[in-house]
Amino acid sequence: MKLRSWFLLPGWLWMVILFAAPFTIVMAYSFLTRGIYGGVEHPVTLESYRRLADPLYLEVLLRSFVMALVATALCLLFAFPAALFISRASKHKTLYLQLVMLPFWTSFLVRTYAWMFLLRDTGLINTALQAMHMIHDPLPLLYNDGAVLLGLVYGYLPFMVLPIYATLERLDPSLPEAAADLGARPLVTVLRVIVPLSRPGIIAGAVLVFIPCLGAYLTPDLLGGGRTVLVGNLVQNQFTSARDWPFGSAVSITLMLLVTLLLWGFLRRESEQLV
Amino acid sequence: MTPILEVRNLIKDFPGHRAVAGISFSIPQGSFFSLLGPSGCGKTTTLRMIAGFEQPSSGEVLLKGENVIHRKPYERNVSTVFQNYALFPHLSARGNIEFGLKRRKATAAENRVQEILKLVGLAGKEDRRPAQLSGGERQRVALARSLVLEPDVLLLDEPLAALDPKLRKQMRVELKAMQRRVGITFLLVTHDQEEALSMSDYVAVMNEGGIEQLGPPEEVYLRPRTRFVAGFLGAVNWIGDVGIRPEATRIGATPDGAGARSCFATVTDSVFLGDRVQVLVRLASGQQAVAQVARGSAVFQAGQTVQLCWNPSDEMTFP
């Protein structure tokens, strides 16, 4: 074997042990029967996949897709101007980038709890508003879809900012100048030149945000208060309280297939457009 | 008549250095004007201030007599052909050409696009993306994109630098012809003296942020006012304090013609250039000089003593 190939070995081992093996196990579980106290038993069956067709579960899937989509759109809306600002900044660029990445310095769990402290009925926002006599009863800020969206957008925003920033940074500065030179006002330049040319970054960011949002379970669990059931919570439930490992596995596999298909179709269309 | 473009006492300071040190010039309507100088002389900064990409530290830029320094690039009726063309890679040639027309909500845009495509010789290639065009074609798109807007002044920033030498020479001729045909004022920025001399009606030679000399090409070449201008526009033989162009320097046994000047020199080498022969000589003072002689004239050997001759009218003297 060539020396170069050996460099791939750690990566390969990692993928086999931590991805391929668990994936195969989950795949196998999804075709088995649930055990009474969890685990799996024979016989082999398609029952778990049949159950997925239940409108109840289809709705969970649909809700998860919509939530992930809205979160991705919101991330894009906030991230693009921020990335544009940072890439155009003449000073303090590194500082701004560090600020974007600052949340990563503490754990996601801690940060999500922090949001709970801010949003709950006796939280900072409600007590402050009450103290200023702007409201009487606390606003229902926590345990709803809005709180979940907030948590998702907050948590994944940096994953949208960074790839967009990277493409904007590489953008030839004479292109926006040329647009202005040809009579385009700043907004037109952004929409007609900068956005189309930062497409690769936008797509990378959207993928990086959409996929984890789709499978998110911590954020909906804590900020949604269990009321907002997304597919991630569904999977978690099956492996814990519901003790239905085959069904949990079937949901995971289905979600993965859907995402793979979706991305494959989407990215293929994109690469065709690039030619 | 008011000049189409006038620059008054334009200064641009960057942190730590003065890029443009108070230059003034004016360009008559319909002429071809060049800013010529070495890199770092401030010519591109000047162009960028006229386009509106840089704000001058002080001074005025007047378009048709009106000061435009507080106007944004999209509010100035000038257009730039960028050194790297800066074509929009996501748009076709047509998309690039239409870009400015759409911003101006121009009427009969389609006719104008077709006309300009024909003018720059790109008809039939309008649906290609910049990546699918050759360097020369990309440049034509860049030109078309600006010309179609009929700007008061077309600003060209080293437009031929990215082309290969053969194409560059051809484009010089085309660019000049195109300028005559459309009648638009061209302001060219270049470091290539041949380019400036061959195309321009007026050349402003820049050095260290200032204009050293401004005049028609013949004047700046034949009667340079400073040593810098003389040296930048072509080779110079320095004989004492007097400069003579190699093509005005002859080699003869005796001075031919009345009043001709001469001095002795030793041949160090002779170089055959195809259409002419360059003879390298060393003067008694130790200075090097070059004389150009016709092909097929006498053969000069290294070490041979010759007499350099020139006419007093070809002498360039500087205060």
Keywords:
heterodimer, A: 275 residues, mainly alpha, two-stranded antiparallel sheet, 14 helices, globular, B: 319 residues, alpha+beta, 6-stranded mixed β-sheet, 5-stranded antiparallel β-sheet
* Fraction of residues in β-strands of chain B: 25-35%
Low-confidence stretches of chain A are none
> Average pLDDT across residues of chain B?
91
Morphology of chain A: globular
Biggest sheet character of chain B: 6 strands, mixed
Radius of gyration of chain A in whole Å, from Cα? 23 Å
Helical fraction of chain A:
over 70%
- Rg on CA atoms of chain B, Å: 23 Å
Q: How do the strands line up in the largest sheet of chain B?
A: 6-7-8-3-9-10
Q: In percent, how much strand structure appears in the residues of chain A?
A: under 5%
Question: Total strand count of chain A, please?
Answer: 2
Distance between the termini of chain B: 34 Å
Average pLDDT of chain A, rounded to a whole number, is: 89
Total beta strands of chain B: 17
The oligomeric state of the chains shown is heterodimer
- Uncertain spans of chain B: none
User: Biggest interface in this structure?
Assistant: A-B, 18 and 23 residues
Query: Considering DSSP H and I runs of 4 or more, what fraction of the residues of chain B is helical?
Result: 25-40%
For the biggest β-sheet of chain A, the strand order reads: 1-2
Give helix and strand order of chain B, one letter per element, not per position: EEEHEEEHHHEHEHEEHHEEEEEEE
What does this protein structure show overall?
The complex is a heterodimer of chains A (275) and B (319). Chain A is mainly alpha-helical. Chain A contains 14 helices and two strands; from the N terminus they run ααββαααααααααααα. In chain A, strands 1-2 form a two-stranded antiparallel ribbon. In chain B, 26% of the residues lie in helices and 32% in strands. In chain B, strands 6-7-8-3-9-10 form a six-stranded mixed sheet, sandwiched between helices. Chain B has a five-stranded antiparallel sheet with strand order 13-17-14-15-16, with no helix packed on it. In chain B, α5 (165-182) links the parallel β7 and β8 (185-190).
